[in-house]
Amino acid sequence: MELNFMKSIQPHVFKAIQDLDIATLMNCTPDEIRPIIPCLVRMALISPLDTTKYCAEAKKDILTLLSGIDLVNFIVSLLSIEFHTLETDLKKEQQMRQKNGSACTESHLIQNNGNGIANDFEQSDSARRVRIVLAEILQMQVQITEYNLNKNSSTESSIKPSELFENDVYLEEITDVICISLAELPNLLNICDVVEPLLYVNKGAAIISWVVANMPDTLQEVVNSLVMNAERGEEGGVRGAALSVLCAACPAVAAAVRARAATACRLPALVLTLTLRYHQDDLVPFLSGLLLGTDQTTRTWFASFLRNSHKRGKGDGHAALTKLRQELLNRLKDASAGVDASALLRLYCAMRGIAGIKFQDEEVAGLLRLVTQKPPPTPAGVRFVSLSLCMIIACPSLLAFPEHEKKAIEWVQWLVKEEAYFERNLQLKHIEFLLRLMVTMLCWIQHTEIGFDTSKNNDIEIEDKERSCTPKKFEDKKLEELLDQDRCQTLTELGKTLQVDESTVSKHLKVLGMIQKQGHWLPYELKPRDVKRRFLTCELLHQQQKRKYFLHRIVTGNEKWIHYDNPQCRKLWGKPGHTSTLSAKPNIHGSKLLLCICNSGATASFGEMLLLVAIHFHSGQLAAVGELVCATLGMRVPVRPNSLARIKQAFTHEIFTEQVVTAHAVKVPVTVNLNSNVPGYLPVHCIHQLLKSRAFSKHKVPIKNWIYRQICNCTAPLHPVMPALVEVYVNSILTISSKAANEYVNKPITEEEIRRVFRNSIFGENFDVQKKPFSPIEMECDDNVIDIDIEKPTLASQLLLMYYLLLYEDVRLANTASLIASGRKVKSYSAAFLSELPIKYLLHLAQKDQMSYGGLFSPLLRLLATHFPQLSLVDDWMDDQVFGDDCRRKIKTNLSELSIIESFQNIEENPYKTGKALKAMLSRNPTEIWPFAKTFVHYIKSVLGENIPRHIQELYREVWLRLNTVLPRCLWVMTINALLDINGSSKNVTITQENILVDPLQVLRCDLRVFRCGPILKIVLRILEASLAASRSQLSRHLQDKPMLEKSGQLTSDAEREELKNALVAAQESAALQILLEACLETSEDQSKPELLWSLREIRNIICSFLHQIFISEPSLAKLVHFQGYPRELLSVTVQGIPSMHICLDFIPELLSQASLEKQIFAVDLVSYLSIQYAVPKAMSIARLCVNTLSTLLSVLSSDMRLELFHPVLKSLVRICVAFPPLVEDITSFLLQLARVCESQASLGYCWNDVNVSGEMAYVKSNVQPKTKVLMAEVMCRDIKITMSEIVEKGLLNDKIY
């Protein structure tokens, strides 16, 4: 009979030695306890620290168990050797091996080993046997170290087989020696270091299991070491065999080994083997987690293993994969539609798409049988249908045969028919779930004590009753006795027992020094091994929680009985310093309740998915089909377009024709509260794709109502497909495909439908004065009346409608010529309607929350800057940051329309009250004070009074700017009407938005006091700038809206129209600037009132700053204004106050060449001031040009025109000399020549003394004799002398260095 050495360890034996269960060991046979005899002998011989009776009895039982075993004598002899000497020699041996390596032939442990190590072991005593085994293990350790160091280099190294371990007869004794050595020499021998060389010996796995069984507390350490020391490419091998043997001895550790190997990406064949052997219940979730988890490293590692094992066809990996596929096939044959089947389908998809495993015929048949099942109408059924459809698309091998293809197409057709049935039953399921949940909550309330009885014995009388007697007295001893019985009693319970009030008990407890402490629940008293086992279990559970199995992503519903009880861990009374007690919990499974769990995260049904797949197939977007399949499956699988040809044909010709798709799409309900957090493919994706392919227009299916409903059901954060949906919808209304001339076009959203969304907002009262109560919207489809709840419109829906309006007008204007040419009449939204919308306010809100509306903010801003430049001014956006914030401290003041009226009516008598009201308005949000805007603006003229403090005017301006962030265009119209000049022709005239667009100069027809009030002038200039921008935009819009189709009449090209438009715009803007410049002139009233001179200085600064911005944005406008000219006394103001006046140097030569003497004088005067302000080389060259021009004109002009030109420029020549002394010589030469001419002219005049000789213009009134006249030439000579003296004094004798 063949002897069987190194028998495997039985699990019950390992568990008994691990738990020290002596009773179980007593019932084991000698063969079963053979592996752990070294451990039992040590336990029997070594004196224990525990001297209890239980320990003594256990020791006797062990001795009884070992009494009939002969091997015990050998173990005792091993324990009897001199371990101190052995430890010294072993330490020397280790040092020598580390220094010399495996080539060393000397040894401190054994000498004279000439007969061979196996014979020497057989003939030696126990002490030498220990030395031989340890020397052999150390030699193998050195070989393994050298092999690991040299495996990546060119140096050859290998692990030689051990002669000692080759004979099976000696293995058990060798194992006993190893166990005793590890136990007696723990400082020098580590079990993990010893186990590693044992992997390369004969029956190493069994030896390792015996060694670990004798030291069961090292099990976790050993398995971790074996896993972590494995190679990356090692699938199983001897290491996997050793771990399998350990798991067979202790099945409880299999979960830890599997988790550790999967986390470290080691030993994949072992992972599969352990899962199939010990964890078949979570086989599918675990493998799905490896292939589809969040850890990219783990996914790549396991997928590569499956792919390589499938291709290799041999080895441990292939064997494990074969067993796995057989187990999955068995499950596939028995699977039915549901949650488990969905998980199985995803695993097969992952194996095919990620791991590249080709399905066998049996697997194809089983998968097709499963995916074509008809599931129940539950959320799990819907999920199963979606996964099945995706698997049919992702795995074309399922349709390799005609009968398979026919079966799949029939199943899809059944889905199309039964979709409505699924939806209806899902709604019923949800209602049933809600009802069941309500019943569950009621039952739970009844099972728990959460209430109190408010009427004991039905006694509800409220009258006072007579007290029975005074509170009873008691002794402290009685209270102490009650506390000794139960220290967890409450004050109420103690008072009831003692028949006294709770306050009396509390006072006595304080006298006794008692305080309350919280106790702790303890499930039961734990032994040390229980604590260790629980720690291991918690660690495993923690690792499993980190792994996201695919079940986390399944939409499912389920019911489960939850066992519960509500024990209360009560406080106890004790002395300070007294520790709280530990109490075992009572029955924790006393009651149970039915818990209904339903995941409502997935709102998209398979109907939308079917529809979207059909849409993509119709439009030829096969890549989009692949993206949809991958998104539904939750994995990246290769979906090749060339493999979808047959499926595409089936969808487009047999299942979903394009007409069926469009007719079905408009009947799909919109997604309620649509936002970017709603996952999956939704109806909006289907509609967007159909609109993009113009399928609705092709089959004449109206879609406006559906889009309007979906817009009204949008919330933040905005779904990314909604802006794209609006864009394709607008294009479907206004643009026609070139292939279909008579194509059906969708209808635009009406103004009334848009008003309904804004009517119930904070500005509804403003842009819809005649507000009507909400009523259902009459839709155009079959004249049905459909209720759309827009009582509280969301910001998302308002922004989308605003985007629709702006984009509609942008596309309409861009395509106006083609629309008119084709004879189409399209809807145009009026300017009055657009002015009602709070465009600026909504855009400001979107800017503050760009995380929610980032995809819409940029296109909205672009359209706003294009069509409404008056709302995108830089100053407005800067003010929004200052006045549009919500961080101001609110002032507690009763703010009402009546209080505002009273404060402004008494503004001169009590400005403090007005300031308080304005501060209260300034502390509130702009939308809160907008209802008072009309009253506020009505009293703007009262702020213009002479006695109004400047502080009140500044507060008024700040409040106005705060209101300007809400509805600026409405505010501008109200302000213009309130500032109309009552003394002028504008009495009883109301300015409208259309009037301002036609004539923006209406803004400046205001009360003249505005031009001496700085804060209010800033408001007017803000309105003027916006009005000019609006007028420019309106003229451009008019040109686009009325294109030139026939080139007849006075205008023959668009360039001429554009030129006329630019001329009109320039005339308007230059007129506005001329008015503002005239406002800077000093009047007689300013001279009579000194305070007005200070106001005039401020007004000049404000207007100059405004002109500077205009000149910078439009340099051509600066040229136009100076060519038109303005009072020369303002040149000093404009040159010093407008920093951009230096641009005038570019066009002054052209101005000098004008024939008009006034313009030439103006040019010379302008150059003189610019020379003072900008003493640069360019200014000097222009000044020299002026002098040369004057010299030329001196010899060209007639005598009258000569005097008219040169007399006004004398002062300018002085300023030029002051600015540029090098020009003094040229100027003095010119003045001398001019003086000689004037002297000659004067002498001629005196010679004849005849008025008609020199002409009427040559004489001026004398300053000395008013009734007499003197020659102009004489006056000119006198002024030239004065000019020469000023040049000498200011230009030559000036000590300023240039």
Automatic annotation (TrEMBL):
GO terms for cellular component: integrator complex. The keyword Nucleus applies. One of its GO terms (biological process) is snRNA 3'-end processing. SUPFAM superfamilies: ARM repeat (SSF48371). Keywords: Nucleus. Belongs to the Integrator subunit 2 family. It comes from Eumeta variegata. One of its GO terms (molecular function) is nucleic acid binding. The keyword Transit peptide does not apply. This is Integrator complex subunit 2. It is found in: Nucleus.
